[in-house]
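Please decode residue identities from the backbone states below.
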């Protein structure tokens, strides 16, 4: 049964094609025909019911007011960077600092050895990229992540982090294999002092079979605990390789809650030379991953505890209505990812939706926003009081919510203007998320047009993650053009 149409790419020649999304046998499929290479049918989501649930959270963003490129409709993903057709602003900007690496993994197609040349933008070029990101309108990019290759290979990394804070990024992140952080706690201290917010640590498992650098990762996490630097574990999940360890990875995170802020699972995307057989054997979709998490945590975290990323758009709308200022909006496509928060308590892990009835909580946020839009100081005050009362009701309706805890948080934050309360909330909660980057077998142009994760390039362009790394693969062109 056809459920939707979209635009997609031929997996062989990258021609832009009409695609049909179908619901058959309990799964969702992407079908398309290339005049030259024939018909293709690939798995899009392996749980049709969950796909339809997530579809309800469809929320299209507003793009940016100062795009770099003006593109005619229908040309995406050609001439990318950001263009006038793009529908989301930048939530997280990646900057590749180098393609050099201190490991030599066989499977890596992006390192200098595999490329045969070095890509490494200059300090001034990187500062130019950061300034461009902070000049985005109507909202400057709030977060930058230094990536690679291995960004700790650069001698000027500390200076770059310091400069990122100076140009105004509230969040500065580092995507790393953690080798240098394990070897040198002084380096970890320097990162923290320079203003680094979070380390994104490649972490594929909790055994030596799934994670060849486990000892190093454990040491890196311990060093971060000691220094007080937040870590997000980033496992790439491959069916048959490490999908049996999702529960154990979450438990590792919970055991290290002093430093570990979350786990961001990335189901494998088949870039590079992977063929059809690899896809058949190793593909894992978001619903399968969520089912693994449910099974491997004994149902403590359920598939139904996860929500698509745009579910938080009502919060941005509320803050916009309250402050009158445009806010960052989480508007990636509803099928790009899923997330939840889990509280680490004395009695174990408790997902946030056991503590609050999420549906009625979001409704109360939307009601409050509508009332605030009517304006007036007295109305603002009344709307807030009423909204908080409605939110309290949604805590009461939940399975195990504590209204006492809720009032402590709201009271301290809103009434006493004490934002430490929010920090305490954050430090006891673990973010569990997943984002399934696309490859040529499941490429959906309507997803990439809404992407919120963008790569800044030395050319002054901003390229969405899934056109940079797959589809037209702008990474290869950019690195080659600016090779040393
Ligand atoms: S991905 Fe976005 S920026 Fe790139 S061409 Fe498509 S709409 Fe434009
Ligand atoms: S990176 Fe890919 S999967 Fe993630 S939001 Fe962008 S388009 Fe979606």
């Amino acid at each position: 049964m056809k459920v939707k149409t979209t635009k997609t790419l031929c997996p062989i020649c990258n021609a832009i094609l009409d695609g049909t999304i179908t619901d058959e046998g309990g799964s969702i499929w992407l079908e398309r025909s290339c005049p030259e290479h024939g018909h293709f049918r690939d798995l899009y989501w392996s749980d049709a019911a969950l796909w339809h649930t997530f579809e309800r959270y469809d929320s299209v963003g507003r793009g940016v007011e100062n795009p770099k490129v003006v593109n005619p409709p229908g040309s995406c993903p050609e001439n990318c960077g950001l263009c006038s057709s793009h529908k989301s602003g930048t939530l997280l900007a990646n900057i590749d600092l180098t393609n050099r690496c201190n490991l030599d993994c066989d499977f890596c197609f992006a390192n200098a050895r595999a490329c045969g040349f070095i890509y490494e933008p200059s300090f001034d070029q990187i500062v130019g990229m950061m300034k461009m990101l902070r000049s985005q309108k109507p909202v400057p990019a709030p977060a930058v992540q230094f990536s690679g290759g291995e960004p700790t290979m650069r001698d000027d990394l500390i200076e770059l982090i310091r400069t990122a804070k100076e140009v105004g990024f509230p969040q500065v992140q580092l995507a790393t294999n953690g080798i240098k952080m394990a070897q040198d706690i002084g380096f970890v201290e320097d990162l923290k002092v320079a203003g680094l917010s979070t380390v994104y640590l490649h972490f594929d498992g909790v055994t030596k079979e799934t994670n060849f650098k486990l000892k190093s990762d454990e040491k890196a996490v311990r060093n971060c605990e000691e220094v007080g630097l937040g870590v997000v574990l980033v496992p790439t999940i491959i069916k048959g390789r490490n999908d049996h360890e999702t529960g154990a990875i979450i438990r590792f995170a919970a055991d290290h809650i002093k430093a570990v802020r979350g786990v961001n699972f990335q189901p494998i995307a088949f870039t590079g030379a992977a063929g059809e057989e690899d896809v058949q054997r190793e593909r894992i979709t978001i619903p399968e991953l969520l089912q693994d998490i449910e099974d491997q945590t004994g149902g403590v975290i359920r598939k139904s505890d996860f929500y698509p990323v745009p579910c938080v758009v009502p919060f941005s709308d509320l803050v916009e209505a309250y402050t009158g200022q445009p806010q960052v909006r989480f508007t990636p496509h509803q099928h790009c990812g899923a997330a939840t928060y889990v509280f680490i308590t004395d009695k174990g892990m408790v997902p946030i939706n056991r503590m609050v009835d999420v549906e009625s909580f979001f409704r109360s946020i939307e009601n409050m926003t509508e009332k605030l839009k009517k304006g007036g100081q007295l109305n603002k005050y009344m709307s807030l009081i009423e909204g908080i009362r409605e939110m309290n009701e949604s805590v009461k309706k939940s399975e195990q919510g504590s209204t006492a805890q809720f009032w402590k948080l709201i009271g301290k934050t809103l009434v006493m203007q004490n934002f430490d309360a929010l920090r305490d909330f954050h430090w006891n909660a673990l973010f569990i998320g997943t984002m399934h980057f696309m490859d040529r077998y499941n490429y959906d142009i309507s997803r990439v047009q809404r992407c919120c994760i963008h790569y800044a390039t030395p050319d002054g362009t901003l390229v969405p993650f899934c056109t940079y790394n797959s589809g037209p693969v702008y990474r290869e062109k950019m690195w080659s053009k600016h090779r040393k």
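Observation: The two ends are 52 Å apart (CA to CA).
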